[in-house]
Each structure stands twice: as structure tokens, then as C-alpha cells.
Specification:
The complex is a heterodimer. Chain A is 29% helix and 21% strand. By secondary structure, chain A is an alpha/beta fold. Chain A has two domains: 6-323, Alpha-Beta Barrel (TIM Barrel), CATH 3.20.20.70; 330-402, Alpha-Beta Plaits. In chain A, helix 5 (154-167) packs parallel to helix 6 (184-192). The radius of gyration of chain B is 23 Å and the shape is globular. Classes of the chains: A alpha/beta, B alpha/beta. The interface between A and B is medium-sized, with 17 and 17 residues.
């Protein structure tokens, strides 16, 4: 069986699956249940200065798939609403009882050196493995000059990271907000500030739905709503892009990343690790199904690694990064076309109508005599993939490479590019 | 109980609460959650095969999607504009050989989308909310007589009223609905749904109703053709086929299934219906299934349905046959009745001869016989069109084909201003949904004709 142990900036855990700083890690009771279930680590829900914040009712919104599963999730909960000393006492106890698990403490205090300087020794005293700076929370705390209000200003990100590095021996992980145009800027700032790692993404500004009866956003608090932080499966593509951007940026290349965003199973985790993540953090999936989902994450990742011949996480970590490139370097001469497996086809016609109405009119409808049949018009197919995505049958439509006999040619080299750099 | 010399036919074989439970809705409606899950299974096929399989061409993927988006009223409108009796069809259509048989979900997982249940969900919702999605066009001043208030007549009348014509429905019975009211098994249309649907159809306005009007007795086709601009005949099949066996008319206990079912449907208290302890049903269609299951549910102990050919030759679908078997009906194939044996004027036994196919595929008797003891014998071997009321003394006769009214693709008969549809014509299949389509097609043809004739 593959070795799933990780050593992330000196933080050791039996597997890369951590629970993200969020309600599931708000107190000892939950964290102990998570560790019993097999989670490799937790990032304790964000601590702040006393007096603790006050939360509202209700707090969550959700986007559901047709079968009533949450595919997107949103919250307007703030950081922990429990007194600092209770949290610190519990953290200390948990770390003592579970020494092999990672216990990282998320922090958010006002943006002054004194504030950070004064809380750090208390955290250090618990024996926690590291701190994560919450520069991401996009609601509530940001109105008070904390959370994403800091994360959106790269200079502040670097500054706070630097203070923390000065005032603690614990590794410093900077949690980034995605509510920014270019994720590389705050990542570079964190690195320059001396951060040991970044974690991303925090939640995305969002309004999940409007209650059309009361004409207010959900979650609704006494008739009003506010934007919340979006997460869950729907944000995974956004998170992957941001992780990849940092992984392949020359300034941040090699900066350890703890990936967050829509991770619900081992495959999601493997994908983020292939983009160089050292650990992954999970919240929504656990809040949806409970802690037991880690069973499949551990066994699924291990089985997949065994199948692929990867003995350790490091064996495949970052392996996909070299294949993430800019559009301009894609091979213009490459061609693929759709192929329909007629034995698998259930004759729903979705590929045909999608192509006919919205794309390239390259799937013919050959119905008649009581038979229904759809065929790719190869000469017209541009290999866009739409048909394969709308097809409800797995592996029924596949994209097959077509030999063009032409060499690799990217846009910077293409004679059709008016901006092409002249060949030497 | 001691064996009685007289046939054992009695009411109240089961407790009233048992009978009530037996006649509850066989397929309880979907609730919102189930409807959402089921509707999410529809792939929204293009040129969907389910639509092609529906005689009324309901845009099924569209209405299913509307249910899924929470637009249940839109879904019901979509259904009803194609099929005004969409509520009843959702209950009684043999979807297993129509829309659901063609669902592409069958190909990969052998489980079609439950289209019939979803259709019922949408239409019931609209009817419960009391919404009425139809209005009448400007009055044309034209008058149309519709003879027969069954599915074909109701469908035709509604569409004609919508198109602005004034309609009078004549029906021989005291209630409209035809087989919906008098023929369909009780557990398929509970809570007096047939009459609720009649009321829904009539709500559009412009339709007057004359009940207890028997064609050939109280009204004549000649007279209707004179008094109205057009006539639609939705007469159904009022005759029942006979076994042609000695004693069929004389022995008590030998009954027509359709008559018994009609009585059962109209009975205010099913516990008072008399039913035999041992029942023999002869036939292979839905009526045979319905009488078998309903007598079983009334408390008959042994119900044996005998059909002369193979299961796949039965008019009842595989689903209906299974339903009968699950309800304790024994089905015997390959046998035909050859003798009714009576005692003291009552039937007590039916003798059957085993059947087979000869070299040329014709049904033959093998000469081997067996008997089944019974208290009642129900004949369910088909119904026939009775032509006398229309052609008896008429000046011009309707052309018939295969004993039914001949029509063209517009449901037009051989007579100048007479259209016909439903079971009394030779088109399509003997299903409620086909009758609805016939009535709709005829209404549009009548409309075109009346508008063309100024």
C-alpha cells in the first residue's frame, strides 16, 4: 500500500487530508471525532481577540444539483465565537492526545503588529504545529478591516507574514483569498514576507439565491441577507486554476501549497497534489456527509497510487504542473474529433442538438424507419468536446486524435498570427 | 362453511375496511420530493422517442423539465394543450408500451423515467389549485353535436369550444365520462376523478350537456345533422361479444364483465356487491384483467383467467398481466371454453378445451378438456360496435369497415357533416389516449370545415 504520510513545511501527518478552518474544527468535540475517523490533520477554526464575535442565524446557503445534493455552499459565519482561552486549552489537549496528527491554528486579529505579536505566544504554548493566517474570510470580518480586507492588499499580506515570522518559531501558512484579480500577487507577497507556505482558496464572494417570496438573499437573517463565502464542488475549478498559477509562477515556484476548494474525494485530492499541493484541506464535503468520507479518500488515493506505481505522495506531487501552459503555447496543428460508440449510444440526441443549435453542425441525425442514429460528420468536426460533455453515457463519446502529418506549431510561431515574432 | 347446492355468490366477503383498502389508489401520487428526483432523471432528449410514442404527442421532455424547475403549472399546461384528459391518461395509459417503453433510460439501465406518474403530478397540481389554462376564441356561431361523452367526445367538445364553436354533448348514460366513468378499474381512478375531469373539461364554457339521450331512441343522426352544423360521433362500443355456448343467456352467473365493472364503479358501497367465491374469467384484454383483479379485491377466493393463446398475444400488457398475478389471479393460457355446465339454472362449471397452433399457425382445439368449478363466469372477450342506432332508419348510411365506422385521417366519416372517433372507428388502438387524439383531430377538421363554409 502506498505511503500517504506527508511532511508539509515540517508539519507531519499520517495522510494529506486535513480539515480546513471552519465549523467542523471549531472545538475539541468535533476535532476528536475527526481524528477518530482518520483525518490527518485539522486547521482549527480561526481564533481572534476577545471578546469573541457574535454569529447570526441562519448562516448557510446552498446551490443544489437536480438530485438535491449540494454542489455549491455558502456561509456568513464569522470566526470562532468562543472565548480565546477555551479554544487554546482545547487545542493543547487535542495536540497532546493526538501527537501524530497535524494541528494548525488559524488566526485573525486586527492588522497591527501588537495584535499579532500578543496572540502568537499563546498559540505557541499549546504545542500546535503551525499557524494559518486567515486573510481570506470575505464576509463580516472584512468589514472590520480583517480577513479578505487584508488578503486583497499584497503589501499587507507580506507585512503580517513578516510580523508573524518575527514573533514565532511556528511555521506560518498564509491563507489566500480568491477575491482578487491575480492570485500570484498576494502569493508573491506572502513569500517575500517569509511565509513558509500558502493555503488556498478561501471562499468566494457570493449570493447563492434569492428567496422570491420574501425578495431577500439566502441565508436570510430577519428579512435581509448579505454576501457570503462560496465553497463546495462548484469552486474546485477556480481553486485549481489559482493553485496552478502559483505553482508555475517563477517567483513562487516551489512555495509549499496546502490546497483548498471543493475537495470531496480522493480524486479531487490527487488532482490538487498533481498541481503541487502538499496537503489538501476539506470542509464542505465533511459538512455535507460527515467525517466518514475520509475513509474513501485514504483508500482511494492509496489504491490509485498503487495502480500507478507511486510509492509516496512526493512521487506524483506537481507532476501535472509542467503541462499547465499558456494558450499561446498550445499546438495549433493538433486535431481531435469526436467518436460515438454506437453500442453505448442510447439515442437521446443531445449531442446532435447541442452541435446543431450551438456549435458546428457536425453530428448528423439519421433517424427513420423506427431507428435513431447519430453520426459524427468528421469533415466538419472541430474537436470542441461539447458533444462528449453533454452525452449522459460515460465513455460513449470520446475524442480521438487525428494524424495531421503537421509538426508542433504554437501561436507565437503561426504565420497566421499578425503579432508573431519574426523568426531569427 | 358447508358446500351449498346453490352457487356461492355473496356480498361482504371482506370487511368494509378491507374492501376500502383494496380499492385504494394502486399507484399513489408522487410527492414533491419524488417528483423532483424522478424528473431529474429525464435527459431532455432531442426529438424525444417518448413523444413519438404518445398518440397525443405530448412534449414530454419539456413538461418533465418544467416540473424539475418548479414550474408545475407550466408542465400541466403543456400536457393539457396536447391532451385535455392528461390526468386520466396519466392514470390509465399503458405507459409500459408507449412513452416509457421508448425512454432512452431503458437502454442503459432498464428503468425508464416514470412519465405517467410525473404527468399525474403536474395535472393534479393544476386541478387542485383550480387553475384553468384555456380560454375560448371569439364565438363562431356554429353549433356542433357531439354524441357520446367519453374520452373522444370530451376531447372533441373541449377543443371545439376552445376554437369558438358551441357544442352540445349527448350521452346515453346519466353521467359523462364514458369508460372513464363506467369502465376503468376503480383503483386506477379513485376519488371520483373521472367526474372531476369532466367538470374540468366543461369549465371552458360553450358546452351544453344532454344526458340519458340514446341515439336511435331519443335522438337520431338525421335530426342532429339537420339541427347542427356538424356532428361528432364518439359512440364507443356498446355491444359485447358472446361465447356462443349453450346456456350463455339462460344460466345465472354468466355475466358480461363490462356490465359488472360499470355496476362496481357506480356502487356507493362496494361491500354490498355480490361476488362469487370461485370466478372464471374468459378473455385476454384489459377488461379481463380488470374484472379478475376487482373480483379478487371484493373477496373472491379463486379467480382464474383463461385465455386461448400465449401471454404475448394477450391484449393486456405484460405489466397488466403481472399486476393480476401479484393480486392472486391465476392465468391459464392455451384453452378455450367449450361448455357451460349448470345446476338448478345456475352455472357451476366451465369446460375448456386445450388449444394449440397448427402447422399454418391457426388456433386449433387439441380435443383434451378440463373443467373449472365456478360460481360466476365473466365474459371479457371484446366489445363491438352496434350500428343500428346510427344506420337503422337513417336516410343516408355511414360506411363501415370491419364493423366499425370508417373514417379518413381527419376522422371524417362518409357522411357530409359527420366526423367520428374513439373506439367506434377503425383508427389506431383501443386506448383512452387514442380516443383523445381522435377527438382533437376531428375538432380541428370540423373547425377548418366550418370556417371554410363561412
Amino acid at each position: 500500500m502506498a505511503d500517504l504520510r506527508t511532511n508539509f513545511v515540517g508539519i507531519k501527518s499520517p495522510n494529506p487530508f486535513w480539515l480546513a478552518s471552519a465549523p467542523p474544527t471549531d472545538k475539541e468535540f468535533n476535532v476528536v471525532r475527526a481524528f477518530k475517523a482518520g483525518w490527518g490533520g485539522v486547521v482549527w477554526k480561526t481564533l481572534g481577540e476577545d471578546p469573541p464575535v457574535v454569529n447570526v442565524s441562519s448562516r448557510y446557503g446552498a446551490l443544489h444539483s437536480a438530485d438535491q445534493r449540494m454542489i455549491g455552499f455558502n456561509n456568513i459565519e464569522l470566526i470562532t465565537d468562543r472565548p480565546l482561552d477555551i479554544n487554546l486549552r482545547e487545542i493543547k489537549q487535542v495536540k497532546r492526545d493526538w501527537p501524530d496528527r497535524a494541528v494548525v491554528v488559524s488566526l485573525m486579529v486586527p492588522c497591527t503588529e501588537d495584535a499579532w505579536k500578543s496572540i502568537l505566544p499563546h498559540v505557541e504554548e499549546t504545542g500546535a504545529d503551525a499557524i494559518e493566517l486567515n486573510f481570506g474570510c470575505p464576509h463580516g470580518m472584512s468589514e472590520r478591516g480583517m480577513g479578505s480586507a487584508v488578503g486583497q492588499v499584497p503589501e499587507y499580506v507580506g507585512m503580517v507574514a513578516k510580523w508573524c515570522k518575527q514573533h514565532t518559531r511556528m511555521p506560518v501558512i498564509v491563507k489566500l483569498t480568491p477575491n482578487i484579480t491575480d492570485i500570484r500577487k498576494p502569493a508573491r507577497a506572502a513569500k517575500e514576507g517569509g511565509a513558509d507556505a500558502v493555503s488556498l482558496i478561501n471562499t468566494i464572494n457570493s449570493i447563492t439565491s434569492i428567496d422570491l417570496d420574501i425578495m431577500a438573499p439566502t441565508p436570510t437573517v430577519d428579512g435581509k441577507g448579505t454576501h457570503g463565502g462560496y465553497c463546495g464542488p462548484a469552486v474546485k475549478p477556480i481553486a485549481m486554476h489559482m493553485v496552478a498559477d502559483i505553482a508555475r509562477d517563477k517567483d513562487t515556484f516551489g512555495l509549499p501549497i496546502s490546497a483548498i476548494g471543493g475537495i470531496a474525494n480522493w480524486r479531487d485530492a490527487a488532482e490538487f497534489i498533481s498541481l503541487s499541493a502538499g496537503t489538501v484541506q476539506v470542509c464542505t464535503a465533511a459538512m455535507h456527509y460527515g467525517f466518514k468520507i475520509v475513509d474513501d479518500m485514504i483508500s482511494g488515493l492509496g489504491n490509485w497510487m498503487d495502480e500507478k506505481g507511486y510509492a509516496t505522495i512526493e512521487d506524483f506531487r506537481g507532476k501535472a504542473v509542467p503541462n499547465v501552459t499558456d494558450w499561446q503555447f498550445l499546438n495549433i496543428n493538433y486535431k481531435s474529433i469526436a467518436q460515438i460508440d454506437q453500442d453505448k449510444c442510447i439515442k437521446c440526441g443531445l449531442c446532435h442538438i447541442a452541435c446543431e443549435d450551438t456549435s458546428h453542425q457536425s453530428i448528423a441525425k439519421l433517424n427513420g424507419g423506427g431507428k435513431r442514429r447519430y453520426e459524427v460528420i468528421e469533415a466538419e468536426c472541430v474537436g470542441c468536446n461539447l458533444c462528449a460533455h453533454v452525452c449522459p453515457v460515460p465513455d460513449c463519446i470520446t475524442m480521438v486524435s487525428v494524424e495531421t502529418g503537421k509538426p508542433y506549431l504554437n501561436w507565437t510561431q503561426d504565420p497566421r498570427n499578425p503579432m508573431r515574432k519574426a523568426a531569427e | 362453511m358447508t358446500q351449498s347446492a346453490t352457487p356461492d355468490i355473496a356480498a361482504g366477503r371482506l370487511r368494509p375496511d378491507e374492501i376500502a383498502a383494496n380499492f385504494e389508489d394502486i399507484k399513489p401520487p408522487l410527492d414533491r420530493k419524488k417528483a423532483l428526483i424522478e424528473s431529474s432523471r429525464c435527459y431532455f432528449c432531442h426529438d424525444a422517442p417518448c413523444i413519438e410514442a404518445c398518440p397525443t404527442s405530448i412534449d414530454i421532455p419539456n413538461f418533465v423539465r418544467m416540473i424539475n424547475t418548479g414550474n408545475t403549472l407550466g408542465a400541466a399546461e403543456k400536457i393539457l394543450e396536447a391532451n385535455i384528459l392528461g390526468g386520466m391518461c396519466a392514470r390509465v395509459c399503458p405507459t409500459e408500451i408507449l412513452c416509457e417503453d421508448k425512454c432512452v433510460r431503458n437502454t442503459s439501465e432498464d428503468k425508464p423515467v416514470s412519465i405517467g406518474m410525473l404527468q399525474r403530478y403536474a395535472v393534479d397540481d393544476l386541478m387542485e389549485k383550480g387553475r384553468y389554462p384555456f380560454t375560448r376564441r371569439a364565438p363562431t356561431g356554429k353549433r356542433v353535436a357531439v354524441v357520446g361523452g367519453g374520452p373522444a367526445g370530451l376531447s372533441c367538445a373541449h377543443r371545439l369550444a376552445m376554437l369558438g364553436h358551441d357544442v352540445t354533448i349527448f350521452d346515453a348514460k346519466s353521467k359523462l365520462g364514458g369508460l372513464n366513468e363506467y369502465g376503468i378499474a376503480a383503483y386506477k381512478t379513485v376519488n371520483n376523478f373521472a367526474q372531476a375531469e369532466v367538470d374540468f373539461v366543461l369549465f371552458i364554457g360553450g358546452i351544453s350537456v344532454k344526458t340519458d339521450q340514446v341515439l336511435g331512441r331519443d335522438i337520431t343522426l338525421d335530426q342532429l345533422r339537420r339541427d347542427f352544423n356538424a356532428v361528432f360521433l364518439g359512440l364507443g362500443l356498446s355491444g359485447v361479444n358472446a361465447l356462443g355456448l349453450e346456456g350463455e343467456e339462460q344460466l345465472s352467473g354468466v355475466m358480461d364483465a363490462v356490465g359488472y365493472i360499470a355496476d362496481l364503479r357506480q356502487s356507493p358501497d362496494k361491500a354490498r356487491l355480490k361476488v362469487g367465491r370461485k370466478i372464471v374469467v374468459i378473455g385476454g384484454g384489459n377488461t379481463a384483467i380488470d374484472i379478475s383483479v376487482q373480483t379478487k379485491k371484493l373477496g373472491a377466493e379463486d379467480v382464474t383467467l383463461v385465455y386461448r393463446r400465449a401471454p404475448e398475444n394477450m391484449g393486456a400488457t405484460w405489466h397488466e398481466q403481472e399486476f393480476a398475478q401479484v393480486n392472486g389471479v391465476k392465468i391459464k393460457h392455451w384453452a378455450r371454453p367449450v361448455r357451460l355446465i349448470g345446476q338448478n339454472g345456475a352455472v357451476k362449471e366451465v369446460e375448456f378445451e386445450r388449444t394449440a397452433l397448427d402447422d399454418r399457425g391457426r388456433l386449433i382445439g387439441t380435443g383434451e378438456t378440463f373443467s373449472i368449478l365456478c360460481d360466476q363466469v365473466f365474459k371479457a372477450i371484446g366489445q363491438k360496435f352496434v350500428k343500428d342506432p346510427v344506420n337503422g332508419k337513417a336516410q343516408e348510411s355511414l360506411d363501415l369497415v370491419d364493423g366499425k365506422i370508417a373514417v379518413n385521417e381527419d376522422m371524417k366519416t362518409s357522411l357530409a357533416n359527420v366526423w367520428a372517433g374513439g373506439d367506434c372507428v377503425t383508427s389506431g388502438i383501443d386506448l383512452t389516449v387514442q380516443s383523445v387524439e381522435d377527438g382533437k383531430v376531428a375538432a380541428h377538421a370540423i373547425d377548418r370545415t366550418l370556417r371554410g363554409a363561412k
